[in-house]
Write a structure and sequence with these properties.
This protein is an alpha+beta fold. 31% of the residues lie in helices and 37% in strands.
Length: 590
């Protein structure tokens, strides 16, 4: 009897446990949390780690795998460590790009799985063809990491790289090989390279690697912010303007740096300059020029300026023109533009990067294909904007769009020819009138000129003011998003505000020379004052709008957002007009 009671109790307990066990849904079976390590064997794994200049680390893992289970496999599983030995390493957060390619070079789909708390961020790699029992295949995993290096400390051994040695895989590795590749500008490095066998699944072992650089000729550049403006005009050109704010992180002074440009730019259109004037540079082109190749520009910074010392920042602009006909095609009355852009043409990483594409006045977008984040239309000009974070040399984007200009493709293409015809007619009319009509001599007084040194100093100060204004906007944006504390915000705000007041005083002193000269120079100063006043008024309007919206609640969210967007568009237009005036002043520098 006791045995029967015991059996009944045990049966009820088992039934209770089964009822508490969660059911497995179809989605769970498609992406299992646990991957059986006995299904696949990594026959050979070869890891190449390329430590490139300016802290970019590129990792290439080549896998040769074999199906040793009875199941047909359509995917395999790899991972990137978050923790090693209980120590948080943050490797996954420093990953900027990851791609996978099959045996024939075909692109394979990668899926990032939900983190399961195992210390490893897992990914599924979906094979192009199913892998049957005893079959083998291979694939290549390419990853780019940023900010793994600590450039603030340079020891006797050199700069330090803290990384994980063995690729994390859900399956055992029979043979493994590691090879480190030091930067091209490094002078020496510690030897790290190993051949191991029979490595367990999900192995994660950290290692430290040092490399030295030639401190007499090498600096570590970081780009804090970058922006590219692309303007498609109605005269057959694509105008490109790049802006970079760079900082020297290394112990060595900045003597030179390399930046690339398309090899098919219009002759004579390239310029590179800072807040003072143009920079000295050398050009080098590939042996076989084509539209897809880049020409290298080596800027000799030490010949143009004092060397950029450690932790010092500066601003750089680069502009050039491209022939529109090489990027457009005709589709009925529509113009199709296809731009394959290398986002970062410099050799340094960029933290924050913005692309703005301006279409001709009156253009109407029909279709577009890209990661466009916003489209605005101000005064008939359509602007497409993209924003990126942590941009390395391996990032690129393709923009394809169709648009109409004045409803006719031939009007857009033939506009330059029409301009030439009108100019010839006007010139002929002027000659005829000059011959037939006697004109009185009119004495014109030549306007006074402003010295190039004064113009250069004014442009430099105003460019610094624009950069400070950008810093202030980023500071306020970070504070509003809770990225920085209130005390730090107030301290940095006061520092920027004090610098801005000093700059305004210096600018006012120099503005007297322009007002005294009269003519166009006086008009430029008056226009700048007016634009600055309108910009302040627009910003105050947005602040007042936000206060009314938060305090009174009388404005609907839709009306608030519409009014706020209009105010921001107005500020963007005013900034663009200020930049154009400063660029005009820069052209007067001899």
């Amino acid at each position: 009897m006791k045995k029967i009671r015991l059996a009944v109790v045990l049966g009820l307990m088992m039934l209770f446990i089964l009822l508490l066990t969660p059911t497995v849904t179809k989605a769970d079976t498609q992406i299992p949390v646990y991957e059986d390590p006995g299904l696949i064997s990594n026959l050979d794994v070869k890891r190449d780690v390329y430590v490139e200049n300016y802290g970019i680390v590129k990792v290439i893992d080549n896998f040769t795998i074999k199906n040793i289970g009875e199941e047909v496999k359509s995917y395999v599983q790899i991972g990137i460590p978050k923790e090693i030995g209980g120590i948080y390493k943050n490797f996954d957060d420093k990953l900027t790009s990851i791609e996978c390619f099959g045996k024939e070079g075909e692109s394979l789909y990668l899926e990032k799985l939900l983190y399961d708390g195992s210390g490893i961020q897992k990914w599924n790699i979906y094979l192009l063809n199913p892998l049957y029992d005893q079959e083998t295949t291979s694939f290549r995993l390419e990853m780019v990491f940023y900010n793994l290096m600590d450039y603030s400390v340079y020891t006797s051994e050199g700069y330090k790289l803290d990384f994980y040695e063995i690729p994390s895989s859900a399956y055992p590795i029979e043979n493994y090989e590691l090879e480190m590749h030091r930067p091209t500008r490094s002078s020496s490095a510690t030897s790290v390279g190993s051949n191991e066998t029979n490595i367990n699944p999900w192995s994660a072992k950290s290692y430290t690697w040092y490399y030295k650089i030639d401190t007499s000729s090498h600096s570590i550049i970081e780009c804090i912010y970058g922006k590219r403006e692309i303007r498609i005009d109605s005269w057959g050109f694509i105008q490109v303007l790049d802006y970079y704010r760079i900082k020297n992180l290394g112990d060595a002074n900045l003597l030179s740096f390399i930046i690339s440009i398309p090899s098919n730019i219009i002759n004579g259109s390239f310029r590179i300059y800072d807040t003072t004037s143009s920079l000295i540079y050398d050009e080098s082109y590939p042996d076989e020029l084509s539209k897809n190749l880049l020409a290298n520009i080596t800027v000799q910074w030490s010949q143009s300026r004092n060397p950029l010392i450690k932790n010092q920042e500066t601003n750089i602009w680069m502009s050039y023109k491209l022939p529109l006909e090489q990027y457009v095609s005709l589709n009925g009355d529509k113009i199709m533009v296809s731009l394959d852009l290398i986002i970062n043409q410099a050799e340094w990483p960029i933290k924050d990067f913005t692309i703005e594409l301006y279409l001709p006045t009156g253009a109407t977008i029909i279709t577009f294909s890209s990661e466009i984040q916003s489209i605005t239309n101000n005064y008939g000009t359509t602007t497409l904007s993209n924003y990126y974070e942590i941009i390395t040399l391996h990032n690129q984007v393709q923009i394809t769009l169709e648009y109409l200009v004045f409803g006719n493709f031939f009007w857009a293409v033939g506009r330059p020819l029409l301009f030439v015809i009108i100019s010839i007619i006007a010139l002929a009319a002027y000659i005829i009138v000059r011959r037939e009509v006697q004109t009185e001599k009119i004495i014109l007084t030549r306007p006074k000129l402003v010295a190039s040194a004064i113009i250069r100093e004014f442009v430099s100060l105003y460019s610094e003011k624009i950069a400070l204004d950008l810093d202030l906007e980023k500071l306020e944006n970070n504070f509003s998003k809770g990225k920085i504390k209130k005390r730090i915000f107030r301290t940095q705000f006061k520092i920027i505000e004090r610098k801005m007041l000093d700059l305004n005083d210096e600018i006012k002193e120099l503005a007297v020379h322009f007002s005294t000269a009269g003519g166009r120079f006086k008009q430029i100063i008056e226009n700048l004052d007016l634009l600055e006043a309108e910009k302040i008024h627009a910003k105050d309007g947005i602040l007042n709008l936000e206060k009314r919206y938060k305090m009174t609640g009388r404005i609907s969210s839709t009306a608030f957002q519409k009014l706020r967007d209009d105010g921001l568009k107005r500020i963007t237009k005013l900034k663009s007009n200020i930049d154009k005036i400063i660029e005009e002043l820069r052209s007067y520098i001899v």
